[in-house]
Amino acid sequence: MPKTMRAVEITKPGGPEVLAMSEQPVPQPAAGQILIEIAYAGVNRPDALQRAGAYAPPPSASPLPGLEAAGRVAAVGPDVSDWKVGDEVCALLPGGGYAEYAVTPAAHALPVPRGMGLKEAACLPETFFTVWTNVFERGGLKAGELFLVHGGSSGIGTTAIQLASTLGARVFTTAGSDEKCAVCKDLGAERAINYRDEDFVEIVRDAGGADLILDMVGGDYLPRNVRALADDGRLVQIAFLSGPKVELNFAQVMARRLTITGSTLRPQSDLAKARIASALREHVWPLIEAGRIAPVMDSAFPLADAAAAHARIESSGHVGKIVLKVR
After folding, report:
1. Which one, 44, 93, 220, 297, has the greatest CB density within 10 A?
2. d(CA 152, CA 140)
3. 224-243 burial, b if ≥16 CB within 10 A, otherwise e?
């Protein structure tokens, strides 16, 4: 085992250019943790927020960016029995994924699905953990319900469309171009709305209203989402790309018995994340291994080009997931 590793660090808060290659000590797994020799690491918007100084890692986490990765188990800490050295895994990370090695609780790792490569597996943890817990556990989506997911061509969106449609929901989505809308329909969306040309509120209300909306836009989408909900509908907020503050008339929430909730994944307890991993292994991994669901890949960048990967995700030109090739 080497003592040092290549890694990407955030030199100061700022734009993509503040990401720089560095040499870091290889972390050591503590009790209940595994050390992963990383092949590919996922790139996600929370990484960009952390780089900009707007999303601090938990005190116990690595300051390096990177919340998901795939590779091989390089070492196991005390009290780990589920994994052994050499196992191929993909895992949710507390941080540190932009590096050759990272540690994570053993219960946050999942086996690489049969027939899938490490590049594709690196796209699974962050989005599938987020979608499963917010759409199906917090949001309570059921077969036959109308589900609206914003940002349908994003990593979250492409995952949510596939999971929801595969499990029997009617899926509507928004995207920023006709080309992106076509991708969303190919993934299982019944209706893909180009938000530059069409009013999603009108379209969804004409269809009877949404039973569940998953939103990462925020801002002026919040009151529009409320109008688009059916009576007894649920809105789950997972990000605020357009800001977290807006004026909202809560009389509609009361009169129509609406639920507004939300969550972020990273601050949740290790036990909560372990429970999500267990649910994914039981309910979702069989669908992936059967070929019914697959991550949508946008692009792969060398680890040293992490800045370019961040520029890509912040351009919103991507469709699906972006990864860093570490090895």
Report:
1. 93
2. 19
3. bbbebbbeebbbbbbbbbee
In total, how many domains does the chain have? Answer: 2
Q: Provide the β-strand partners of residue 34.
A: 76, 104
Contacts of residue 54, defined as CB under 8 A and 6 or more positions apart, other chains included, come to none
DSSP labels, 173-242:
EEESSHHHHHHHHHHT-SEEEETTTS-HHHHHHHTT-EEEEEES--TTHHHHHHHHEEEEEEEEE---TT
> Among 262, 277, 307, where does a domain finish?
262
Tell me how far the alpha carbon of residue 240 is from its chain's centroid: 14
Kindly report, residue by residue over 193-232, the tens digit of the pLDDT: 999 999 999 999 999 999 999 999 999 999 999 999 999 9
Strand partners, 146: 170
Place of tokens 């100061």: 12
Residues 238, 132 share a domain: yes
Domain around 116: 4-124+295-325
Same domain assignment for residues 55 and 84: yes
- Residue 175, in any domain of the structure: yes
Question: Each residue of 72-106: pLDDT tens digit?
Answer: 999 999 999 999 999 999 999 999 999 999 999 99
